[in-house]
Each structure stands twice: as structure tokens, then as C-alpha cells.
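Standup notes, protein team

Yesterday: finished cleaning the Anguilla anguilla set.
Today: Solute carrier family 12 member 9 structure.
Blockers: none.

Input for Solute carrier family 12 member 9:
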Amino acid sequence: MTERTPLLHYRLSISVQESDTLPALEKSPAVARRKMANDKPQKLSTFFGVVIPTLLSMFSVVVFLRIGFVVGQAGLYQGIGMFLIAYFIISMTVLSICAISTNGALDAGGAYYMISRALGPEFGGSIGIMFFFANVCGSALYVLGLVEAIVASFGIPEDGTVAMVGAQRILPSGYWWSLLYGTGILLLCLLVCLVGAHIYSRATFLIFLIVMVVLGIIFVSFFAVAPRVVLLPLAPPNSSGPISGNFTGFKLDTLLGNLEAGYTVDYTTGNMMNFATVFAVLFNGCTGIMAGSNMSGDLKSPSYSIPRGTITAVIFTFIIYNLLSLLVACSCDRVLLQRDYSFLRDINIWRPFVTIGVYSSTLSAAMSNLIGASRILYALARDDMFGRVLSLAKRTSLSGNPWVSVLISWFLVQLVLFAGKLNTIASIVTIFFLLVYAAVDLACLALEWASAPNFRPTFRYFTWHTCVLGIVGCVVMMFLINAIYASASIAFMLLLLLMIHYLSPTSSWGYISQALIFHQVRKYLLMLDVRKDHVKFWRPQVLLMVANPRSSTGLITFINDIKKSGLYVLGHVELGDLDTLPSDPLQSRYDSWLSLVDRLNVKAFVNLTLSDSVRHGVQHLLFISGLGGMKPNTLVLGFYDDCPPQDSLLDHALPAGGSTDTPHPPKDPEEPLSFHFPALRDKGGAGAGRRAGPGAAGVRRRHRRRREDAEERGAGPLLLPLRPGGGSGAARAGAGLHVDVWPLNLLRPDSSSYVDTCSLFLLQLACVLNMVRAWRGARLRLFLCVEEGRSPPGPEGKLQQLLRDLRIQADIHTVPWDRVVALHWQRQRRAGRAPEEEEEHYDEEEEADVLGSHAGGFPSNAAQLTDEYLQAVNQLVLGQAHPPPAVRFLYLPRPPADTRRYPAYLRQLDLLTRDLGPTLLIHGVTPVITTDL
């Protein structure tokens, strides 16, 4: 107790001090602003913000003017079946809405907010615009419907027939008068929406009470009104039919007469009705399920209110619609139902009640769509989806009401009113809504299929099956209502999607496409079994070691051409020790490498590693690059030489790259670059080179792991022929270029085999390059080195037959090299060893190399090569360059097992490839080509 007393006193003292300062704090500006914020209109509850708007939007005028039409044409059985189908479709969408709305915090925008945060800005923006136009046209639709109802009750006929003019018909009729009436009604809706969501909720509550009272009186009228004969409206000209119908009260004969379908001509349009046309009319009254979701920014708790309020409204309207259908079928004969759509007024206790209900529900639906459209436009503007075009729509009042968005929505609704007729825009409105509903189902389906851990909605009564059923139902309904409008709406949405994708708005919402791609890639990677690999499906999967991208852009884009849709990884080794560094230096450079990939427009991944040496770093990258069956099988090293490098990233005159097999064009070369690579020849990192002899050692170790290897020399000159295209016609196809292939081991003249694994690997890579679009017109030249008098008969014919079997088109050129190879034999004879003996020792050493030994005391064959011989071979290759090739493929000999011979090995490669220009030294260790089907 003694230990707690001081703490208790301390708390009491703080409380006293705070209480003493309260009067002073209340006078401060901060407290005053806080009180003003608290005085703002409070958010809406579930009942006022979701249930009432959704109920009124789903009832609209259908409940009063189209129930008899549905039962009269389709019968009770098919009518209830239509309601079941329609509510099944919208219920699937409601489940998706509930799932998304309970997966996180919702803001203003309703369906747009859900779709954009789930599917990304492209789908979100395009569907948002579609939903905005749907609400705009929907508001105009209900205003025109209200005008038609008013003119029908109080309008003077345009023909001025005296018999039709009564005391209650005092309003002039006509197109311009109807436009004037619609403008006045729309101004009333505008005033309510400008005041804010709070006054809107009060107005809709008042309308809700009126509609409920009218519905209650309609139900009572079926029981209270005595049977009567009802005069039918005038039929269209040149048509005959009964002039009266019967309200029979509840009779079994009436019910039996209304059970089956009885499709006939619609007396208002003269068109023959069928299941599809009647269903389309009925479904127009069921498209208001988003009215509550549109108010998401004005709700106290959207995640709580939207699911409960929407489901409540859907269940309630479904019960009302089916009860009314049953009562109508039991008490009204078919003639009355088919020839008088406003018969509920004639059988009501007091006729004006139904008129009041029609006016109230229609006015509420118009206001609901207007305020919904303004909220969607405000959300689009706030997300900068269309840049400055919608910048004004971001403005709000002190209470948070987006008054500018309300004015813009009102103006567009006013423009739609010039259409003049409800039927002109009814179909397109329904199709727009259905398209939005399908997008909501698609968003929920994508989130469910992606299996993202953060998708855990509290509403769990949905599966991917319900999402698919919702999508299919909405699409089928769209084309059932109007196939032309449906196709045009989808095309318009895709056009918006492409436009937003081109504008590339920045967002931090996340992209569902990335989650889906990850999910599918992981699944297929697990299915990619390396044990089922076959040589006929081999493709290059390249790991390119890059010391500094500033001087290697040509090599990067060239290897992108040669990968043949395979895996492509850019590897870089940063020299250093993480234990001695304050942080990992690669994290800050990774973005620069990704920017480089975007800049060069290559399809490549990036792998960076920190190591104490290039050799160990290359080993790390070989182990960590790729995943599962997609791992590099070909390693490419840049040949380290003494040529002064050129910073191609700073030279806009040089081609910035661009893969020939990618559909996207390269970036603008004049745009500012954000690369943070070290200066050229910097010692901070390397990909491969001759420092401490890592090149030969790396190749040797890679042989033991059975990977293909290639070293590239002439990175600077390689920039020039890199893009053989760029002109037009034949130039773009690489016409006039040559690719030279020397499939013989020039450092091993005593081995005249052209069909070993390495030679075939050279042919395969040259063929792969020739298959790329930009190199397709290039000619392959295959050089066959022969010795007169010693070569077996017909080597050229055998090689041509091999090329035919391999389906490779190439020109074979025979090159006599007697004088060159004689230099090699002279050295061998001076060493006192016969060619046959040298061959035997070479084979023994090769076998020892494979086993990892150092070949004992026997010198390797490469050690017997003189500079004179290597220079002669170099001149032999240069002498065949007429015209000069764009790139050469040479045989890369196996490096010696003895590490002391690495400098000599690299020096021999240097002498062999000096002044050859762009050259690839290639060595293969596994079969990569086959003649089998």
C-alpha cells in the first residue's frame, strides 16, 4: 500500500491541474474549432441511410404501375418465377456488396470506392464513370416518369379534345411543357441535395412514410372494396377490344384464370409481349440495391449499415412484390390487368392515394440517384482519376457536402431531360446498373480467388460460386434487355479503361491483378516439375551478370532478344561485408535497377547480392535466382577488357533499348532519369571480370553445376547492331545483316568435331536469335574449317544434312586453314609429342577436370598454344568478315582445372577475340537441341 500512495497522489494532482485549466482551454481557438466540428450534421444510421433509400429506389413506380402488367401478361406462376430470377441475380450482387463493404473502412463513392480499391484504378475509374452516368440517367428517368404521371392526371390532351378535359386537367401538355415540368421537379431535388445528406434523409423519411401508408391502404383496399366494373383506357388506334374489366374480389375462378401465361399486345405500345420483354420491365424496378451503398461517405458505420440495411430492403421488397402479385391474381380478371396498368387507383378506397404514392416514390428515386451521382463524382475527383478535369468537383461545404459535384450532376441530368421520353433512356439505365453490379461481383470474385490474407470480411455468407452466378446473371440480363446497348456499354467501358491506363493515375490502393498473378504463378510453378523436362522444350533461361549498367545497356537488350520467352535475370554483385556496413546498400539501389528495366523495356527480373568477392557473389546468384522449375540454365558474363567504356544512359542518341518481342513501346528518351549507378570502372561492384581471375574460376565452377555459359566481348560496338530494325520494310526485319557461327573449338585444332554438345549449343542460340522479329531477316553463316588432304570426304554435305535435320537455315562456308593449324602442329612436335599422344593426354585431362582434380603433372593442351597461332586464328576469323557480321558466335573452351593457369587462359581468349567486334564465346554442357518431333 505504501508503494501505491505516491502514484495515487500524482494522478489526483494531475486531475486537479487539468480541471483548473478547463475554462482557459475552452476559450482557445482550437477548442472553438473542435466545437464547430462537433456541431456538424451527424452521420446517418442504418435505417435512414441505407434501408429507406434502397426501399424507395427498388419500389419506384413498378410497385404501383407494373404489378398488374407482369401478372396479366406472364400469369402468377411465371410472374413469381420472374421475381425469383430477378431477386436471385441481385441477391448474388448483394452478397458481394456485403462482403466487400465489411472488409475494411469505406469512404464516399459507394460501388466506385469498392471496385477501385479492389480492382485498381483502371477498372475502378471506368466503372465509376459508368455508375455516375447510370445515376445521372436514372435521375432523369424518374423525373420524366413523374412528369408523365402528372401530365396523365392533370394534363390537357394535345389534340384539345373537350370530352377529355375535366376540372382536374388544367396543365398544358407537349414536349416543351413537359421539359419545363421536369426542370422544376429537378430544381426541387437540387435544393434538397444542396442542403446535404441530413436534410435528404429527412425528406426521404417523409416520402417513405407516405409510400408505406399508400401501400397499406392498397392492401386494405383488396379486402374492403366491393367487386366493381372498371372502365379501361382507350386502346391504340385501329385496335379493338373490351372497354371494361372486372374487379371480382377474392374468387377461385379469378385465381385459376390468372395462373398461366397469356402474352398479348401491349395496349400502350402495340408490341407483342413475351417472357423477355416482360422480364426486362420487371427488372427495371429491382436495380436500386446500390442506393444505400452510394451513401457510404455519409453513414456512421458503412461496414455495419450497408450489409444489414441492403439485405433488409431486398427481403422486404421481395415480400411486398409477391404479396401484391398474389392479391392481384386472386381479385382482378386478366382483361383488367392487361388493359389498365393503373388499375390500383380504380380499386382503391380513395383514388388519389395511389397517385400520391407514385409521385412520392418517383421523386424519392430521382433525389436518390442525383445525390448518389454527386457522391460518385466527388470520389472520382478526390482520387485524381482524371486529373484537372474534375478538380472543381473536390470542393465541399463546411458541412462536407460536395456542392460542386451536386451542381455538375444536376446540369447533366438537365441535359438528359431533353430526351423527352422515359422509354428512350430506360434500357440504357438498366444496362449501366447491371454492368456495375457485374463489376462488383467481379471485384469480390477476384479478391476471393486471390486468397489474400487481408481479405477477411466479417460477412461470410458468400462464395466464389455466388460471385460467378451474379456475373453470369447480370451479363445475360444485359443482352436480354438490349443486345446493342449492352455491347455499346461494354465497349465504352473498355475505352475508358484503356484511357485511364494510358493516363496511369498514381494510387496506393494495391492492384488485385498482382495478387491474382501471384496466386496463379505460384500454382503453376508447383506444377512445373523439373523431372519432366525434355530437351525439345528447352529454352534459354539467362542470368546476365552486369557490373555497371551504364556501359551494358546494349548487352542487356541483346540478351533480352536471345532469351526466346525464357527466364531473364539481371544479376549484380556488390562487393562488401554486411557486418561492417550500417545497413544493406542494395535496398536503395533496387529501385534504380527496376527503373532501368522499365527504361530499356526488357522482360527481366533483378537480383542483387552483397559478397566479399565476385566469384562468391555469382555463386550466390546462381543459387537464389529463379524458383522451382524456372531457374537459370545459361550464365552470361561480360568480357572484361581495357576498352574505354561509354555511358549509354546519358547519351540519348544511342538506342535506349526496347525488346522486339514486347508490345509496349520504349519510354520517352528525353524524360528525366532517376538512375543512381556508380561511375564507370568503379570498384564498388562488378559482374564478372579478370580481377584476381574470377572469370575463369567462375566458368570452371559453373561447369560442375552443369549450366551453359557464354561470355560476351565487345559491349561497346554491340550497341550499334543491337537494333537491326528501326527503319522501314526490310530494315526492320534485319535484312542485310549476318550472324557468323564458328562451331569448332579454335583453341583445339586437333579436335575437328562439329557435332558435340557445345557446337550444337552455338547453333541453337544462333537459331534462337534468328527467330526474333528484329533479327529475322539476318543470314546465318556457318564456317567449316577444313584441311586439304586430311579432312574426311564430304564434311560439308554431312553438315548440311545435320542442319536440315535440325531445321536450321544457314549458309555453309568452307575455310581452308592448313597454314594456321600447321603452326599448332609445329609447337606440338617441338614439345616431343605426337598428335595421337596429345589427344590421349587431352582426354585424360578432360576427364580429370570433370572430376574436379588438377590433372596431375600433365600440362593442358591450351598451354601448348602459341601467340603466333592465336593471332593467326584471329586473322582467319577477321578475314571472313565480308560483309562484316553483326555478331559472332565462337566456341568457348573449357577452362583449365589448375587455377594457376587462369591468367594464361584469359590471355588466350583475349588474343583470339581481339578486334572481332561483338562476339559471344559460348560453352554448353547439356544437350539443348534434338531432331525428334
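Follow-up from PR in the comments: The chain is about 55% helix and 5% strand.
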